[in-house]
Design brief:
heterodimer; A: mainly alpha; 3 helices; elongated; B: mainly alpha; two-stranded antiparallel ribbon; 73% helix; globular
Chain lengths: 115, 279
C-alpha cells in the first residue's frame, strides 16, 4: 500500500536530513572548540550578528549550514506530502500541505528579507 | 569557565534533556531553557533559540521511528498543523515586543501546565462509533497497531482541537518550546484519539511548528551557533537513547518524578523573574 510507503519514505528523509545536519554541526563544533576551546566563555552573545552564509568553511558557517539543513528537512517532508496528496487526488490535503509549505517557506526566507 | 568546559557541560545536560524528552513526550525545551537560564545565566532569548533547534532535532528523530510503526496519523497531524503554524508565526513575530520578564513568567506557568498534563491519568477512551462531521469529510479516522491487528478509531470535536492547536503553536513560537504537552492535550482530550496515536502525531507535528519559528528566531539573532551546537548533538543522542530505553522503563514513575522536577523549576523561574537578573 503506498499509504504505508509514504510514511517510510518520510521517515528515511527525516533520518538522512538529521544525520546530515548533525555532520555539519559536529564538524563546525569541533572546529570551533579547536580554535576557541581554551578561551573564557562569554555569556554575552551580542557580538554575534546573524550573517547569511558566506562561502567560507568557518566553524560558525558549518554549524549554521547544519542548522539550515535541519530546518530544510522539515520543509522537505511537507513538500513531499503536497505531491503525495496530489498524486492521491486528495485536494483537501494537497491544499493543506501547500499552505503549510508556504508558511514554512516564508519563515525560512524571513532572515533574507530582514537581515 | 572555558569554552570547552561550557560546551561539554551543555552537551551532557542536553543528553539528559533528550533522554527525558523521549521518555515522557515533553520536548527538550523544558529542561534546556531552565538549565541555561538558571544554571548558566544565559540570556533567555538565546536559551529559547537553542531549545527551538533541539525540538526540531528530536521531532525528526522520534517521528522517523513512529511513522514506520504506523501510529502517526498524518492527516490529523497536517490538518491541525495549519492552526499551529499560524500560531507559531504570530508568536515568533510577537516575541521581539515582549519583555523578558513576561516571557520568563509565562514559561514558568507553561511548565506547571506541562507538569500537570504529564501525570494526568489517561483513562481508556470509550469506543466511539462515529466521528465529528469535519473528521468524516476530511477522512481523519485511522487505524493503529494494537496487539497483533490494526484497531480503528474515530475522531471527535475537531474545532476545539484546532483552537487548542493554534494556542499551542503560539506558545511554541513565543517560548521556543515544542508545546508537545498542549498538542497531546488537544488530540487526547478533544479528538479523543488513542493515547499512542496522540503522542506520536504530536511528535510529528512539533518539528514543523518549531521550524516555522526558526527562521524568525535566526533573523533576530537568537540562534547562536556556539550555544546551539552542543545542544543539538546532545539532544539527538539523548532522544535516540531514550527511545531505545522506553520499553524497559516504567514510565508512570518517571513521569511523576519528572513532573515534580518541572514544578520545582517552574517556581524557580518565576522567582527569578521577579528578583530580577534574567541574563
Amino acid at each position: 500500500m503506498i499509504g504505508q510507503r509514504i510514511e517510510s519514505v518520510i521517515s528515511v528523509v527525516l533520518i538522512i536530513g538529521t544525520l546530515l545536519s548533525l555532520l555539519f554541526v559536529f564538524s563546525g563544533g569541533v572546529m570551533y572548540l579547536q580554535q576557541h576551546g581554551a578561551e573564557t566563555m562569554q555569556m554575552e552573545f551580542a557580538n554575534y550578528k546573524p550573517q547569511l552564509f558566506s562561502l567560507s568553511f568557518s566553524a560558525f558557517n558549518m554549524i549554521n549550514i547544519g542548522l539550515a539543513i535541519l530546518v530544510a528537512t522539515q520543509l522537505l517532508r511537507v513538500i513531499m506530502l503536497v505531491f503525495f496528496y496530489l498524486w492521491q487526488r486528495n485536494y483537501y490535503f494537497t491544499f493543506i500541505s501547500l499552505f503549510i509549505s508556504i508558511v514554512l517557506i516564508y519563515s525560512t526566507l524571513y532572515p533574507f528579507l530582514t537581515v | 569557565m572555558t569554552v570547552l568546559t561550557f560546551s561539554v557541560l551543555i552537551f551532557f545536560f542536553s543528553l539528559l534533556a533528550g533522554l527525558l524528552g523521549a521518555l515522557t513526550g515533553l520536548g527538550g525545551g523544558v529542561v534546556i531553557i531552565p538549565v541555561l537560564v538558571l544554571g548558566f545565566h544565559v540570556n533567555i532569548h538565546y536559551a529559547m533559540g537553542a531549545s527551538l533547534i533541539s525540538v526540531i532535532a528530536t521531532s525528526s528523530g522520534t517521528a522517523a521511528a513512529y511513522l514506520r510503526e504506523g501510529y502517526t496519523n498524518l492527516r490529523i497531524g497536517m490538518f491541525l498543523e495549519t492552526a499551529a503554524v499560524m500560531g507559531a508565526l504570530a508568536g515568533a513575530l510577537l516575541l521581539a515586543w515582549i519583555s523578558k520578564l513576561v516571557l520568563t513568567v509565562l514559561f514558568g506557568i507553561i511548565l506547571f501546565i506541562s507538569a500537570y498534563l504529564t501525570i494526568k491519568r489517561n483513562e481508556e477512551n470509550e469506543e466511539f462509533t462515529e466521528s465529528h462531521p469535519w473528521a468524516v469529510s476530511l477522512g481523519l479516522d485511522g487505524t493503529y497497531p494494537f496487539r497483533n491487528t490494526l484497531k480503528a478509531y474515530k475522531v471527535q470535536s475537531v474545532p476545539i482541537a484546532l483552537l487548542i492547536m493554534g494556542f499551542a503553536g503560539m506558545v511554541s513560537g513565543l517560548l521556543g518550546i515544542g508545546s508537545g504537552a498542549l498538542k497531546v492535550l488537544a488530540m487526547d482530550q478533544a479528538l479523543r484519539l488513542p493515547y499512542k496515536v496522540a503522542t506520536t502525531t504530536s511528535n510529528f507535528m512539533i518539528g514543523i511548528t518549531a521550524a516555522v519559528s526558526a527562521g524568525i528566531y535566526f533573523a533576530n539573532g537568537y540562534i547562536q551557533p556556539t550555544l546551539t551546537f552542543p545542544v543539538v548533538i546532545g539532544v539527538t543522542l539523548g532522544a535516540y537513547l531514550g527511545a531505545k530505553l522506553l520499553t524497559r522503563i516504567h514510565s508512570q514513575t518517571l513521569r511523576i518524578i519528572f513532573s515534580l522536577v518541572i514544578c520545582f523549576i517552574g517556581i524557580q523561574m518565576i522567582v527569578k523573574a521577579f528578583t530580577g537578573n534574567i541574563g
